[in-house]
Amino acid sequence: MNEYDSNRIYDLVSTIGFTKTKIKNEANCFILNTCHIREKATEKVYDEIGRVKKDFKNLKKPLVIISGCVAQAESEEMMKREPYIDMVIGPQSYHKINDLILNYQRKKERFNETEFDVIKKFDELQKVSNSQSKISSYLTIQEGCDKFCHFCVVPYTRGPEYSRPIKQIIDEANILVENGAKEIILLGQNVNAYNFYEKNKNYRLSSIIRELNDIKKLKRIRFTTSHPKDMTEDLINCYKDCKKLMPFLHLPIQSGSNHILKSMNRKHDKEYYISVIEKLKKINREIKISSDFIVGYPGESKNDFMDTVKLIEKVGFINSYSFIFSPRPGTPASDKKLNGTTENLQRLKEIQRILENFQIKNNEKYLNQFCEVLIENKVNSGEKFFGRTRYMTPVIFESEKCNLGEIVDVKITSFNQKNLFGIHKTNTYKAA
Ligand code: SF4
């Protein structure tokens, strides 16, 4: 979502004359769009400001703006601690950036803007065209979260759930497709909680997917990140008849222990999670799943950990993210007694070994097979192409002739844990 936000911030400031520069010392404004999910996020911001200060030691000071979730969570503290920061803007206030910059240029007053003004934000953003022109483009449809998992800072930094009007979303999707997008990834902190009412009609994520499925030049649709509780029947059914919806779903569970899921306030147990996956696979047997896991959550016993291992083995996730629990200030879990560091590290290594094995086994299946790849870029100084399979796996391949944005059948000749490597020849084969 930060990538989407950064692009939109650029769309806004470009209307008052700013352009991007790759030469750091030429910049007269730095906007650091920050994420608060990972540990040490705040310190990374101060480190980056330190680098800017050093680069501009003998030059005119640039305007320094901190936006995003660190700005939201630490606004006052940041302004106090680092006088080099001129402005702090929260993720739900960045539509005001132009007024704030112009005001700063007039009055030289430092500013802290962290209101949750999400309705106004999307109304304002709608007035400025989305300039993204990537083959695979992001589109935010929903923001914020009402779930309040005990480890998570999102409900405090992004605020309550908000769903954008469906017309705004479809209009933006059409612009992205006209700009060259062949794949749209619908975004939301809780994307499948999308819920918009207009003229007595209720629109859900499934409504957006079905509308997008009808856009002729669009080839692929994805969405992230989903909560298991919001995997409703209408959404599951999209996997049956929306051919452009890719059969790959990132569905975080965090732990395979019901005791830990309860302590995390996840609002579902592992049996419910498994039942959702079973429904999905019944509707479309090609569907594969990835997840997030938190290891060493306060109170996680050996048995709880083993429950997570068993769940991973049962589901066979093709690609997952795993982290050791780290407390986020202000969240309910931040006061809990932490587990031992050594034990946590051992558990993380164990879980990552199992997850990696599944990833490797999954990639191995493609060896000497053909797979369908959407070409996104050229790599290796233009000698090779980069694209992704229907399951998001990166593919690097040689081709005599192909174009960015095309879907081609690539023969896989080797692989590693994360990537597939192959060759594409015209007129030879069809993907399995
Ligand atoms: S559902 Fe996701 S975004 Fe919401 S609180 Fe839980 S982890 Fe955070």
Features:
432 residues, Rossmann fold, pyruvate-formate lyase- activating enzyme, 3 domains, 5-stranded mixed beta barrel, 4-stranded parallel β-sheet, 13 helices, 22% strand, binds iron/sulfur cluster
Q: Could you characterize the architecture of this molecule?
A:
The radius of gyration is 23 Å and the shape is globular. The protein is 36% helix and 22% strand. It is an alpha/beta fold. The protein folds into 3 domains: 2-116, Rossmann fold; 120-362, Alpha-Beta Horseshoe (pyruvate-formate lyase- activating enzyme); 370-424, Nucleic acid-binding proteins (OB fold (Dihydrolipoamide Acetyltransferase, E2P)). Helix 2 (41-55) links the parallel strand 1 and strand 2. The protein binds iron/sulfur cluster. Iron/sulfur cluster is lined by residues 145, 147-149, 152, 154-155, 189-190, 227.
The name of the CATH architecture of the largest domain is Alpha-Beta Horseshoe
CATH superfamily of the largest domain: tm_1862 like domain
Question: Gap between N and C termini, in Å?
Answer: 33 Å
Query: Considering DSSP H and I runs of 4 or more, what fraction of the residues is helical?
Result: 25-40%
Q: Let me know the largest β-sheet.
A: 5 strands, mixed, barrel
Note poorly predicted spans: none
Named CATH topology of the largest domain: pyruvate-formate lyase- activating enzyme
**Text of the CATH class of the largest domain:** Alpha Beta
Q: Looking at the structure, what is the overall shape?
A: globular
